[in-house]
């Protein structure tokens, strides 16, 4: 997906659409992370967002598992959830032999039972959901004490924008998070494989 189709497909993306998109999903530089510099940029950011010790990471809307793979390479145990069976199949293949499990399910209500995690990692998913405040509360409930939400979001488009601005997201987090840090990502071309002029950011919220 490109920057704008990222938003459009997320809004209109029925399961069959994501299954169809799965084969070419990794063609985008920030999805497949095939370029060593792009991969290195994401690995560096992720290392700063995740705990230093080996932790249990829940990657929601994991797609083909590119961020899951980086987290696993950094020593974390990963559970990935995606609505698309085709995406999940690709993620399982990508992380074969790693300490990782992938499940087909809804990111808003992941099928993880009573399991608890140290990190809930979500990229470009929250803004597509109809009740983000409720979803954030649910995600916070999946964390162990002292856990953190790592949310990569943005606002895309010029004529008709889609997304969630950073100030709105931090406002939604205020009732449930003890500490919220916003990291602006738009100026880091290596993350996206090109120059971008829309709002892209990460929020790390300690619960």
UniProtKB/TrEMBL annotation:
Keyword Protein transport part of the UniProt annotation: no
GO biological process: methylation
Domain Methyltransferase type as annotated: residue spans: 58-151
Keywords: Methyltransferase, S-adenosyl-L-methionine, Transferase
Source species, domain of life: Bacteria
Disordered as annotated region, ranges: 1-32
Keyword Transferase: yes
GO molecular function: methyltransferase activity
InterPro entries (alphabetical): Methyltransf_11, SAM-dependent_MTases_sf
CDD domains hit by this protein: AdoMet_MTases
PANTHER family linked to this entry: METHYLTRANSFERASE, UBIQUINONE BIOSYNTHESIS O-METHYLTRANSFERASE, MITOCHONDRIAL
Name this protein carries in UniProt: Class I SAM-dependent methyltransferase
Species of origin: Streptomyces shaanxiensis
């Amino acid at each position: 997906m490109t920057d704008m189709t990222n938003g459009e497909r997320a809004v209109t993306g029925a399961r069959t659409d994501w299954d169809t998109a799965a084969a070419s999903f990794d063609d985008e530089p920030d999805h497949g992370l095939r370029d060593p510099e792009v991969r290195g940029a994401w690995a560096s950011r992720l290392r700063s967002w995740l705990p230093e010790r080996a932790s249990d990471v829940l990657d929601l809307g994991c797609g083909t598992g590119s961020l899951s793979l980086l987290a696993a390479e950094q020593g974390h145990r990963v559970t990935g959830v995606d609505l698309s069976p085709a995406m999940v199949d690709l993620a399982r293949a990508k992380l074969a032999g790693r300490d990782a499990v992938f499940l087909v399910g809804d990111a808003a209500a992941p099928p993880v039972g009573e399991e608890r995690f140290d990190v809930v990692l979500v990229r470009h998913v929250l803004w597509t959901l109809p009740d983000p405040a409720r979803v954030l509360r649910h995600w916070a409930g999946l964390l162990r004490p002292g856990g953190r939400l790592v949310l990569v979001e943005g606002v895309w488009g010029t004529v008709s924008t889609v997304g969630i601005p950073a100030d709105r997201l931090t406002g939604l987090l205020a009732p449930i998070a003890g500490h919220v840090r916003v990291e602006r990502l738009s100026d880091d071309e290596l993350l996206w494989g090109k120059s971008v002029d829309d709002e892209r950011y990460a929020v790390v919220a300690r619960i």
